[in-house]
What we know:
The chain is an alpha/beta fold. Helix content is 35%, strand content 21%.
Amino acid sequence: MCGIVGYVGRQRAATIMIEGLKRLEYRGYDSAGLAVLQNGGLTVVKTVGRVAALAKLAAGKKLSGTSGISHTRWATHGGVTDANAHPHLSSDGQVALVHNGVIENYVAIKKFLLTKGYNFASETDTEVLANLIAYHLAKEPENSPEGPRFLNAVRKTLLHVEGTYGIAVLSPAHPDQLVAARKGSPLILGVGDQEYLIASDVSALVSRTQNVVYLKDGELVHITTGGFTLNTLDLADISPVIDKVTWAVDEAELGDYPHFMLKEIFEQPQALENAMRGRFSADGSSANFGGLNLTAADFRQIDRFVFTSCGTGWHACLVAEHLIERYARIPVEVDYASEFRYRNAPLDRNALFFVVSQSGETIDTLAALREAKRKGYKCMAICNVVGSTIAREADGGIYQHAGPEIGVASTKAFTSQLLISSMFALYVARMRDLSFADGVEYVAGLRRVPDLARRALEQAPHIREIALRYARFNDFLFLGRLSLFPIALEGALKLKEISYIHAEGYPAAEMKHGPIALISEQCPSVFLVPKGELFNKVVSSMQEIKARKGLIIAIAPDSVELPEGLADELITIPDCHEAALPILATIPVQLLSYYIAVARKCDVDKPRNLAKSVTVE
Ligand code: F6R
């Protein structure tokens, strides 16, 4: 949510930062801006709109400076205006700052600064930071025993701040320097060849360096052309740990696809292969998760799992609940991370927590993890982004290895979470009562999933045709049962977020307890049809819709035979093991949403009001 890129080096900072911002644009895209240090002063360019608009504006200026900061915004405090875009300048012109996060006590700080003669040009909470740093800078002696003046001014400011921040700061009085700090909002230092970058996301850095330092909460980095130091707010020196990013630059590029969302939908077979690689036991009957750091004896003690997450990840938790309870017979509780952290739920003594997060930075999920740990529970993470805050703070976990997910609507990360959930269910089930033979059959079923996903993707042209016929409707129902109910929720969420169509997900049998009132020729229903004992029940629900002139799009396994004429449209998915069904059923709902959004001319990768990775509450 919001993106930051900063640069200190020998190249033109503006060019490098704009390239970085383009890679970060999925984090927020209502306005963008940059500031560079040059000719003894600060040059600021900012505008409402996308990074492309900023690039155009910047092209008309002479931006030769080799130190700079930049930002792409997702508005929190203050509307989408040029004045509210970042960077923000202190009213004395001595400080420029970009900020991700929310300053909770900004009203009190603003009052104080007004009494000291500082003025405000925007409605943002951020501007108080720029002015408070300028205030401390003006008071700070040149040769303080506490260290460099610029660093100290930022540090002292942050001691007064409540809320969350990832910031990058410049001052014309301190050329070729940049100070950055984080609390609750990710920030990464890139260590390049005679250059340093700061960014809120590794994807902005990988084209220039793969050597990175992940800043922790409460840390500040002071960058100069000759090097950098890492400190805490109370002045302790920290020895930096330099990590290597394993993502290749082209993984975060569009290639021949029109949208990241489509690219990532088609990357699912590969992401699924990556999620399972090396994770099946040698005897072919179970899974292995070394990163959990728990023995079979530890698992024997657990009498409940608690899964928390947000959005799409929460839907993955619901599938995990179904599979773990079904195969391992251990109770599972699923909670929205944002609710869990405030509702003070009574918990079992031997509960094991899991948080699920693609980005590893979602603030509500991070807070839930911290809350569980504070209460003395072990908390594991299922996470895609290596080195992210959640991955680092968890007691153990499972990396998804799905590669960078840039499309705001999560796709490949979701199916990868589903696969990991089904493998985890198997892992615990085999420690309990699932037989060797059933385990072998389960593993064989999961091993086929990447190939079956490839086959499911072959339906894309057919789904596109259906989407063209149905793109005119403004209401949809998505209906499924048991492990397909979360996929109904996910289908409805995908459609809502990228095409702005009202859609609801329901357990199919619940439909007659209320939502059936919505059914008419104007409200199509997407049915996720199972095999086995519930097939007939779902067919009955479809009949109820048909009797009320509702249109039906059915997504069903190859081998099921629906009564003639019941479905208006049929999308088939390959037959598969029951534990893999939610994964394969997801692919058509993703494609349907995608093609409907494209038909409605929606900006699929940058849906309105949304941004990837929600790092504010
Ligand atoms: C929807 C979507 C969001 C995220 C949610 C959690 O397509 O992407 O609902 O799933 O914001 O994000 P992560 O998984 O990064 O914690």
